[in-house]
C-alpha cells in the first residue's frame, strides 16, 4: 500500500540536467548545464567580442579545458551550487499487498486478509542541494542531498479469507481511501554529457539515488535517465533595469525512471483507513510482529519534458521545467557558478 509513495521521490530530487550550445563550427562539443547547471556561451564571429567574453581560466577543471578554449569555446565556470524544488504527481499500479506475521494465539493468520488496490495517485514535494563540477568540457559530475515529503492515496477493498467458505467482502471494508504520508532523505550521484552544433545542444543526464523513508525498511534505490535537446538564444539587455544581455536556453526531452518496486515495513507504522480494519489488525497483531509487503510499478516509466534556463549573468542562472503525459511535474532551480 505504501509503496505507492516512494517511486516519485527518487525521480525528483535526483534529476539533474545541463544545457549547452557550441558557438563555433568546431567539432568539439561544449558543456551543457546541469539541472540547474550552466553553460556555454556562444562565441560571436567578431573576434574582439569573443575575446572580451572569455574570462581567464581560474581552475584546473575541466581537464582539457585549455584545448577547448584554444579552439574557440567559452566554457562555463567549473563549479556550481544549485538549490532545487520539485513538485510531482503520478499514477501507480499496485500489483499486490500482503500482510504477514499475524496470529490469533497459536493460530497463524498470514492469509487472513485479501486486499485489492485500484487507482493510486502519488504527490510529493522535494527540495535538493546539488554540487557539481565540469570534469571534462563535455562531462559534468555531481552529488546531491534532498528531503522529500508527500502522500499517496489508493482506492482499496479488503476481503477476509474464511477457511472452507472462501473470501467474504464486508461492505464497510470496500471503497476505502488509503492515504499514506511519507517523508525521507535522499542521497545521489550523477553525470551529464553534453554536445552541440552552433546554438543547438543536446544533453544526456543519468543519476543513481538512494532514499530512506520513515515508514519503510531499508533504502529505496532509483535510476533516472533523461535525454534533452534544445536551442540557445541571446536576449537583449534592459538598460532601465541595468540588466546586461543574457542567454535563454529552451529544450524538450523525456525522463525514464527505474525505481525499486517492492516495499516492506511494520504494520504498526500504517494508519488504516477504516476503524473496523484497524480493530481486526489489532486483534491479529498483538505481538507487534505484523509486516506488510507491497509490490507495485509505475503506470509508465517515461514522461515528456519542456523547460527553459535564463542565464542572468555568467555566475547566476535560473531554470524551470515542466513534465507531462502520465507523470506531471514542476521543477525550478537557482544556480551559482564559480
Write down the secondary-structure element order.
HHHEEEEEEEEEEEHEEEE
**Rg, alpha carbons:** 25 Å
Strand content: over 45%
Number of strands: 15
Q: Class by helix and strand content?
A: mainly beta
- Uncertain runs: 1-53
- How many strands, which pairing sense, and closed or not: the largest β-sheet? 10 strands, antiparallel, barrel
Shape: elongated
Helix-residue proportion: under 10%
Strand order of the largest sheet: 1-4-5-7-8-9-10-13-14-15
**Mean of residue pLDDT values:** 83
How many angstroms does the end-to-end distance come to?
A: 45 Å
Number of helices: 4
Describe this structure in words.
This protein has 338 residues and is mainly beta. Helix content is 8%, strand content 55%. It is built from 4 helices and 15 strands. The strands form 2 sheets. It has a 10-stranded antiparallel beta barrel. Strands 2-3 form a two-stranded antiparallel ribbon. It starts with 6 loop residues before the first helix and ends with a strand. Mean pLDDT is 83; it is low at 1-53.
Amino acid at each position: 500500500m505504501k509503496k505507492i509513495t516512494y517511486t516519485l521521490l527518487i525521480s525528483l530530487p535526483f534529476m539533474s540536467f545541463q544545457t549547452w550550445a557550441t558557438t563555433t563550427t568546431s567539432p568539439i562539443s561544449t558543456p551543457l548545464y546541469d539541472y540547474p547547471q550552466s553553460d556555454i556561451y556562444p562565441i560571436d564571429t567578431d573576434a574582439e567580442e569573443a575575446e572580451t567574453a572569455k574570462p581567464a581560466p581560474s581552475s584546473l577543471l575541466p581537464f582539457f579545458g585549455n584545448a577547448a578554449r584554444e579552439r574557440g569555446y567559452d566554457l562555463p565556470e567549473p563549479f556550481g551550487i544549485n538549490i532545487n524544488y520539485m513538485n510531482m504527481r503520478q499514477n501507480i499500479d499496485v500489483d499486490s499487498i500482503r500482510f504477514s506475521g499475524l496470529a490469533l494465539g497459536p493460530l497463524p493468520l498470514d492469509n487472513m486478509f485479501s486486499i485489492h488496490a485500484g487507482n493510486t495517485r502519488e504527490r510529493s514535494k522535494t527540495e535538493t542541494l546539488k554540487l557539481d563540477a565540469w570534469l571534462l568540457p563535455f562531462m559534468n559530475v555531481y552529488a546531491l542531498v534532498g528531503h522529500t515529503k508527500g502522500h499517496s492515496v489508493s482506492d482499496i477493498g479488503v476481503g477476509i479469507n474464511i477457511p472452507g467458505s472462501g473470501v467474504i467482502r464486508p461492505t464497510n471494508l470496500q471503497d476505502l481511501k488509503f492515504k499514506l504520508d511519507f517523508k525521507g532523505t535522499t542521497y545521489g550521484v550523477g553525470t551529464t554529457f553534453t554536445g552541440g552544433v552552433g546554438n543547438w545542444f543536446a544533453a544526456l543526464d543519468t543519476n543513481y539515488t538512494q532514499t530512506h523513508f520513515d515508514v519503510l525498511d531499508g533504502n529505496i534505490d532509483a535510476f533516472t535517465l533523461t535525454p534533452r535537446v534544445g536551442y540557445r538564444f541571446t536576449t537583449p539587455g534592459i538598460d532601465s533595469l541595468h540588466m546586461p544581455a543574457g542567454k535563454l536556453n529552451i529544450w524538450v526531452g523525456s525522463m525514464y525512471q527505474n525505481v525499486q518496486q517492492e516495499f516492506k515495513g511494520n504494520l504498526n507504522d500504517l494508519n488504516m483507513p477504516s476503524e473496523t480494519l484497524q480493530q481486526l489488525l489489532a486483534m491479529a497483531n498483538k505481538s507487534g510482529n505484523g509486516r506488510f509487503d507491497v509490490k507495485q510499478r509505475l503506470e509508465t516509466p517515461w514522461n515528456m519534458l519542456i523547460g527553459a534556463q535564463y542565464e542572468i549573468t555568467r555566475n547566476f542562472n535560473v531554470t524551470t521545467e515542466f513534465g507531462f503525459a502520465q507523470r506531471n511535474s514542476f521543477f525550478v532551480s537557482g544556480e551559482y557558478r564559480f
